[in-house]
Amino acid sequence: MVLEKLGDSLKNTLSKITKSMFVDDKLITELVKDIQRALLQSDTNVQLVLELTTKIKERAKEKNPPGITKREQLIKIVYEELTRFLGQETHELALGKKPTQILLVGLFGSGKTTTAGKLAKFYKKRGCKVAVMQTDTWRPAAYDQLEQLAAKVGVDFFGDKKQKNPVKIYTQFKEKLANYDLVIVDTAGRDALSEDLIAELNELNTSVKADARLLVISADIGQAAQKQAQAFHDTCQVTGVIVTKLEGTAKGGGALSACAVTGAPINFIGIGEKIDDLEVFHPQRFVSKLIGMGDLESLLEKAREVISEKDAEDLKDKFLKGQFNLVDLYEQMSSLKKMGSFQKIMEMIPGLGSLKMPKEMLEVQEGKLEKWKYILDSCTKKELENPDLITTERIDRIASGSGTSAKDVRELLKQFKQSKKMMKMFKGEQDMGKLMKRMGGKMPQGRGM
Ligand code: GDP
Ligand code: MG
Questions:
Q1: Which of 44, 317, 358, 428 has the most CB atoms less than 10 A away?
Q2: What is the pTM assigned to this prediction?
Q3: Which one of 3.40.50.300, 3.40.50.2300, 1.10.260.30, 2.60.15.10 gives the CATH number of domain 292-438?
């Protein structure tokens, strides 16, 4: 697949959004760093990457509209900004005029002649009567190359092996070209955009008056595409770009984004050496495919499924609150219950997903909640706030007052103590990795949470 590596890293990054419990600054910072890394590895210009990620960061602060969770919103923002980054709209060539003429320009080896054949096939399939013309008099093999491609595709070929002047080649066939819907004119390249190439192309174009002047550029030059596209844009008035060899390079992201900023839209992409390896460039579809449209949908779905932001925030506060009392414990248990299975919640807290909770512990707390509620109802406000005040005598009283046993009350108190211990660890050590190491990968013993 095209830009597989970039796609994979972006996919992984986006899936972090659904896996994390909170859409907070920490997640956004991490997300932005991931995107930066992925794009820089794709040889995208640093300045462009910074602009993109600043935009994502800014927009991440926007309030999420009703009906859309913060997670969904964040995924959408990343998707939209990446699309904008690559030029938002699709630029299809208008084929109204007869003949419509395309002039292909670019450096040596960028893929002009190959692309001339690909375009001929592309438009022939769409019902156009197509002709291709070779005006490259620099490379002796260019004539044969295009002639063979034309034969393969089944379109007419024009060229003159003996003529060295590209303009003369064109003008001698000019009348005949009126019979075609589309004429694709191939040109000579150079190692670099030289004065004589600029002069040659401009002179040729004065005769051809091409409807589209398309720069063919190889993706493997990465961000250097910007300078090249800009230079061709400024001197040869190119109307669009075709980025070739996108399937074979890790630098494609850089090339695509570089072209997008020059104001010359990307019309097509070349994705292989074969005649059919050409695609119209749809920025939106490209990004969807890159990060996996199916994946995007399921990401959004997952984002919708998980607990609401507010519940998560409340829970986090409770987890991190120092003044943790029996009421908190109860509320916490209730909210955990409301949010689904305890294990699922643990999985959503970064670093705790791999902790294996004792199975009995997970089951126990479900059934206990009701009893606890009665016990808590029988406690005084002071006792709720400071359970240490609860004496043995009070334990018996509370048990009889709530219709439970002293054993139940003791169990609740024990659970509270253990929870408090764990909360302290959460608070003191927000780095869950360290926390886990310290605990030796195990939860504190006992049946409480
Ligand atoms: P020109 O000098 O600009 O006319 O370039 P050519 O059309 O002769 O192509 C140069 C080389 O690039 C050839 O080996 C082509 O097969 C190859 N090429 C062109 N487009 C693509 C593409 O999209 N993918 C790959 N992998 N190779 C391509
Ligand atoms: Mg050529």
A1: 44
A2: 0.69
A3: 1.10.260.30
